[in-house]
Amino acid sequence: MTPPAPSSAHAGPGPLAALLPYGALLASLLSVTVGASLAKQMFPLVGAAGATALRLFFAALMLCAVFRPWRGGWRADPRALLLYGGTLGVMNLSFYSSLSYIPLGIAIAIEFTGPLAVAVWTSRRRIDFLWILLAVAGLALLLPISSQASSLDWRGIGFALLAGCCWAIYILVGKRVAGTYGAAGSAWGVALGTLVAVPVGTYHAGAGLLAPSVLALGLAVALFSSAIPYSFEMVALRRLPSNTFSTLLSAEPAVGALMGFLMLGERLTATQWLAIGLVIASSVGAATSAAVGGGAAARRRPAEGAEPPPPL
């Protein structure tokens, strides 16, 4: 007698469903780096500050339309909210400024030192010193202290490091903001970041920000850098353990370097690719180490309350 087929109600997820969160995260990384590449194409028109202003302005409109943060108010923890928004504004300004001087993939790799520092600092495991050494080795290869790295501008490296410092603050303060304001905290943060970026962008670009072609590009940058990746990240965060999400996210510098080559014609040397690989390895190691340190429960815990990475 042939045994009955198992009930579909008890069947596990199919292969396509299992791959969905990984595809969503990959789509998010592609979207973010496409957005940054489009923003860099705006620099000849309105500069890095102008591109940042339009990108945050349109992103704030989108997030506020979805989350309506004013319904919950802002009085619960205004100091944290102001620090969160101000940091986000400075982070985006400094990151886009770095793109004026160095390739996209390298800027992302340098900026990644911010969340890497947070991961290592909060873990405090001996193995984390290895990840620090890997990151330092990668940065050393990128610094313009030898003929192999002479093509990199100190200004771009400095702006990217500043963006990384802001990203670290963003992560630490973002946990507090997310716990107080929920999803509306992201909308508040981008709106406050706009108040930082728009005056700077207006000072540098003036009426050029209002040109129809520039506005269209700014809207596209906001879509690819905020609305689209945020939606994909929410799909991935709900289905992946937090350490898996963080590990896969570490591929962003490589994806950025690839998109920089395809969309901007940025060619990296073998040494620069090695440096990016070292930073990625250090990020993956830190994420894996944190998971091991947290035990099996941490490895199984979904990242439902995690703050998505800041849009680039």
Notes on the protein architecture:
The chain is mostly helical and 312 residues long. The chain has one domain. The protein has eleven helices and no strands. It is globular, with a radius of gyration of 20 Å. It starts with 14 loop residues before the first helix and ends in a 12-residue tail after the last helix. The N terminus is likely disordered.
Low-confidence stretches: 1-11, 295-309
Counted beta strands: 0
Biggest β-sheet strands, sense, barrel: none
Percent of residues in helices comes to over 70%
The span between the termini is 60 Å
Overall outline: globular
Number of helices: 11
Global Rg: 20 Å
Helix/strand-derived category reads mainly alpha
Give the rounded overall mean pLDDT: 82
Number of structural units classed as domains: 1
**Secondary-structure element series:** HHHHHHHHHHH
In terms of topology, how is this protein built?
Elements (H helix, E strand, L loop, with lengths): L14 H53 L10 H22 L4 H8 L1 H11 L4 H15 L11 H28 L2 H22 L6 H28 L2 H8 L2 H13 L5 H31 L12
Helix pairs in contact: 1-2, 1-7, 1-8, 1-10, 2-6, 2-7, 3-6, 3-10, 3-11, 4-5, 4-6, 4-11, 5-11, 9-11
What is shown here, in short?
The protein is mainly alpha-helical and 312 residues long.
List keywords for this structure.
mainly alpha; single chain; 0% strand; disordered N terminus; 312 residues; globular; 77% helix
